[in-house]
Sequence to fold (109 residues):
Amino acid sequence: MNVLFVCSRNQWRSPTAEKIFQGYLNHNYRSAGTSDSARIKISTKLMEWADLIFVMEKKHKQLLISRYGTQARSKEIHILDIPDEFAYMDQELIDMLKVTIKPILLASM
Fold:
């Protein structure tokens, strides 16, 4: 399964999620951002690649649907409700990601 993590600038939240889940359940993980200033920008190619998408905020899901329409609507997208107030690999962020994402990944097997 290909799992995509999305935040705004792809600097802290989504790269942290990508890093901590690498190798988990033998899935493939990538991250991207919705902003023009994102380190790695969301793209049609990434949307096609992803089987499951986790977004940090509701606005990220809305942006995906706005930009990618039917393609985004055909994906399973989960909103994590994690605000942009954490640094890369912040322990509290890691704990939040693990608690919210692991049950969804296990259920999707």
Summary: The two ends are 9 Å apart (CA to CA). Strands lie at 2-7, 28-33, 52-55, 76-79.
